[in-house]
Amino acid sequence: MKKILWVPLALFSASVFAEVAVVVHPSNAAALNPEAIAQIYLGRSKSFPDGKAALPLGQAEGSKTTEQFNQKVLNKSGSQIKAYWSKLVFTGKGTPPKEISTDAEMLELVSQNPSVIGYVDKASVTDKVKVLATF
């Protein structure tokens, strides 16, 4: 009977501790710390340290990857992020990152554009992108 309980617990643990990888185009030489990544995703910074434009892409609201990113990188809940962007959009001071549906789509978009920064489940990363950080 104890063995049966371990399987669901192991599956739950794996999903809770999934890592999020922040990715960019392989030619992007940027080195960003977590604070700089957060600044880009909160619309407070519009460029990479070298001055080139930064175009942040997010994943669908409510996805596990987005929840992990919001918690670990932005230190905010999904509802806090939604309220934050609602205020900026209402006042005309910002636009939230465009939402992408899947890790595969995110990786494809990042691999095609040196200005794009995105995040995916670390297990989905391919050699088409460069990992800036994992959380």
From TrEMBL:
Gene3D superfamilies: Periplasmic binding protein-like II
Upper lineage: Bacteria, Pseudomonadati, Pseudomonadota, Gammaproteobacteria, Chromatiales
Organism expressing this protein natively: Rheinheimera tilapiae
Signal sequence interval, chain numbering: 1-18
Protein name in UniProt: Phosphate ABC transporter substrate-binding protein
SUPFAM superfamilies the UniProt entry points to: Periplasmic binding protein-like II
Keywords: Signal
Top-level taxon of origin: Bacteria
